[in-house]
Structure prediction request, 397 residues.
Amino acid sequence: MKSSSPWPIVPLHAVVDVLDHVRVPVSARERAERVGDTPYYGASGQVGTIDEALFNEPLVLLGEDGVQFFDPFKPKAYLIHGPSWVNNHAHVLRPASSIDRRFLCYQLNHVDYRGFANGTTRLKLTQSAMKRIPLSLPDLHTQRRIVDILEDHLSRLDAATGYGRSVQDQVQALRRSYLHRLGVGPPVKIAELAIASGYGTSTKCSYGGIGPVVLRIPNVRDGRLVMKDLKRAATDQDLSTFDVRQGDVLIVRTNGSKDLIGRSAVAERDLDAAYASYLIRYRFDGKRVLPEWVSLALESPSIRSDLETLAASSAGQYNLSLAKLGRVAIPLPDLASQQEAVASFEEYSRFQNRLLDAVAVNSLKGQALRAAVLAAAFAGKLTGRHTDQEVIEELAQ
Prediction:
């Protein structure tokens, strides 16, 4: 394939010294015994500290494995300087005098790794393949000018990304504040409000199963059951004991992430589906409590704290038993107050979701623009003038 670069193309090994022979991997256990403040680097960044250094100079690190080489939006290379230790998951590159290390790093985050990184379950960039990677090599003055223009464009994109994250943080803070104000009414234990409860089925499930749909943790999202990514029981067995009816509340009881424990969803209608064993199903007395109120109360910061405290950890798994969950107390205002709070929160959630969707769209656009900026830079199309924006947006399409 013909290169779009207006400059000479050279293989990576022509402009770097590869220092991989100096790097040394150290286990986390050994590092725990070698306490120090020297940064310890891996495939995509710093992963800890250690008590001495292998390197002490400005370098470029390029992932060897554990990096998403084929995702144009993910970084593959990064800069380090000063005392450092590098493990065997990152190639260590010392730039020659003919190439600016920032220019090199940006280009290594832009090049197409197809045909260089390979692997079935985990992509790997071998040293021999890495050395063959083709790079554009203008003169040093042009390299530095390109880097200056690049960083001007990228700094504005970074500012926009930072603003998007700030909006997300503010939305989540407002959500927590809203939920914190739900603590009205006398506390009542969940078990005292339930008319039925139980664990789900432990039957084997798969995407190619022939039995009933079995709802799992991914189907419990934002207070609702999401009927996507569905698995079925492996055999056509009777799972009616585990049926899901309108108003049922499904609660996550076991997971490797503490944040997911206690996450809940309400069935909005009767479903032709069962639910899995790592979920608990509750049915409530509708004359005393709305199922939507229970789900909402479980999100409040104080009850979330209780749930995380109760979730015992075993072999990296957090678990909530039916007995423990049943003892959790939620505030119980009158039904009219529950209905008002649920309706108000649903309206707020719709606004929140629209805002977060807009942030997500802008984030994707920012990623595309970032890739386009790099493409324009290494095609020699950035000039530092206002016409750059037209070129970048055209490439982003």
Remarks:
- The two ends are 22 Å apart (CA to CA).
